[in-house]
Write a structure and sequence with these properties.
heterodimer; A: alpha/beta; Rossmann fold; four-stranded antiparallel sheet; globular; B: mainly alpha; Methane Monooxygenase Hydroxylase, Chain G, domain 1; elongated
Chain lengths: 280, 234
């Protein structure tokens, strides 16, 4: 299968349906399509002709050795590379339903980032209160009504499974939270603006196993509201949280399939070698 | 030409080693179990109570192997979180050990019968089906040997060959049952021994099924696809 998970399914699913989908490996309709995507850092081509469908309300994991291009690919979705000089995109990432090309020169990167949220490897809360961290993106979008702000902040914090832990500390500094709490706060901050896709770049590599488990559980729940694309070096994590897994190597997409297929019987030898620890 | 061992090549050599140990123990267990089957049937045919005793005394070793392989495969999974072919290998070996342990149980039952059957009578049921017992033992141990070798070499062709041979064993079993029926209709003097003889024949037929199950595990281990369940005798 090149770049396209199998059969299609329509309705927004309940969690039980989603979990059942993971077993039966049905793909929702696409939320985004990478088509013949190439990317260069100067003269170094980091992505080579990537074609990949990202199914809506499902979790797609990107795995591969360091330098294979998975983070580069992830960052194309919210135009992070625009912040670096001498980079170049070619091809398209089409976002449904309006078919805007996320990497097209005509597309405003600020608009893209309004629709695509991102959570990084290390929690990076602003040096502000818990409340102000989550309200930040909303205020940027002109939400000033205090009641509306409070409602949406609470909703985002609940959505990130951290409300019960911070509801009495909303005016404390976010920097006083634990690492795991900070990361969930960053997820709440990303959720507050109701993105269509949430990008996770190694979201738990700086966290302990308990905090990691909470984030993984959260990702499993988040798929009901948002489409998730996650880069991880932890293959067990990819196996636990994702519906589909894509293996990348040397800037190319080698294989994409249901996560259960990839981790029990991948089609390509390169994938098999990587996931069984025979790589390099 | 050097053929790479499918268990090797991991960056972490402890994974290579753990898989090797698992496979080695399964092959050792296979060797022991094949000998148990052959010895039990020989003890029965030759009315050799001492040899039957040897089989019975070695039964705990078979069980120990199964426990050990089960423990080792669980530890391997817990410590290394294998995926894909490594996971399939650990699972196949663990399940093969379970099948071999059941073969050990069948041998034990035949040996128990051999230990009590007594001297050869002119017309006893074991003598009546001696040729079939011998032939079924040959067929079932050949299937077992093929299955264990297929596991050792990760060889799907050998595994398929075992699946194909099950039909012969089933046919021999059916023929032996007909002989027993004829025997019992002519002479009801040895009813208890007749029942035990049928159990011995059935045990050998079941051993073929266990060899077949091991071969199916080998196919899944190597090819990653579950073989279609072959119908009985097919």
């Amino acid at each position: 299968m090149q770049g396209e998970p199998s059969a299609q399914k329509s309705d927004t699913p309940s969690l039980s349906v989603v979990l059942e989908d993971r077993k039966t490996a049905r793909a929702n309709p696409p939320k985004a399509n990478a088509e013949k995507l190439n990317f260069w850092y100067g003269t170094n081509q980091a992505l080579k002709n990537i074609n990949l469908v990202i199914p809506e309300h499902q979790v797609t994991a990107l795995i591969g050795p360091s330098g294979c291009g998975k983070s580069t690919f992830l960052r194309c979705f919210n135009r992070m590379h625009d912040l670096q000089p001498d980079t170049k995109y070619d091809g398209a990432i089409t976002l449904r339903p309006d078919n805007v090309n996320l990497v097209g020169p005509e597309t405003d990167p600020i608009e893209v980032r309004m629709r695509i949220g991102m959570v990084f490897q290390k929690p990076n809360p602003f040096p502000k209160t818990v409340f102000d961290n989550v309200a930040y993106g909303l205020r940027l979008r002109g939400v000033t009504n205090r009641t509306a702000l409070a409602e949406r902040v609470e909703k985002a914090l609940r959505g990130a499974a951290i409300w019960d832990e911070v509801k009495d500390r909303l005016n404390d500094s976010a920097l006083a939270l634990s690492g795991g709490q900070m990361q969930r706060l960053c997820i709440a901050r990303a959720l507050a603006t109701e993105p269509e896709i949430l990008l996770f770049d190694e979201p738990t590599s700086a966290l302990d196993p308990i905090a990691t488990a909470k984030i993984e559980e959260l990702i499993t729940e988040l798929r009901q509201r948002v489409t998730v694309l996650i880069v991880t070096h932890n293959m067990q994590q990819a196996a636990r949280v994702s519906d589909f897994t894509a293996f990348m190597y040397l800037g190319e997409l080698v294989e994409v399939d249901t996560t259960s297929k990839i981790f029990t019987n991948p089609s390509k030898k390169a994938t098999e070698d990587y996931i069984t620890g025979r790589y390099g | 030409m050097h053929v790479a061992d499918p268990l090797e090549g991991h960056t972490s050599k402890t994974v290579d080693q753990a898989l090797h140990e698992l496979r080695t123990h399964a092959v050792e267990m296979g060797g022991l179990v094949i000998d148990q089957v052959g010895s039990a049937v020989r003890a029965l045919l030759e009315r050799d109570g001492r040899l039957a005793g040897v089989v019975l005394s070695r039964e705990p070793q078979v069980n120990d192997y199964e426990s050990r392989i089960d423990r080792e495969s669980l530890t391997f999974i817990a410590l290394h979180q294998p995926v894909a072919s490594d996971l399939r290998t650990a699972r196949a070996i663990s399940r093969a050990a379970l099948e071999l342990e059941r073969v050990g149980d069948e041998s034990k039952k035949i040996a128990r019968f051999a230990a009590k059957v007594g001297a050869v009578a002119p017309h006893d049921p074991v003598s009546a089906v001696a040729r079939s017992l011998r032939h079924m033992a040959t067929l079932s141990t050949a299937m077992l040997r093929g299955a264990v070798r297929a596991l050792d070499e990760a060889n799907p062709a050998l595994a398929r060959d075992v699946l194909d041979r099950d039909r012969d064993l089933d046919e021999e079993f059916a023929a032996a049952l007909r002989q027993v029926m004829s025997f019992v209709m002519e002479d009801q003097q040895f009813l208890r021994a007749t029942v035990d003889t049928v159990f011995a024949l059935k045990g050998l037929e079941r051993i073929g099924d266990h060899a077949k199950n091991i071969s199916e595990q080998v196919l899944y281990m190597v090819e990653g696809e579950r073989p279609r369940k072959t119908p009985k005798g097919g």
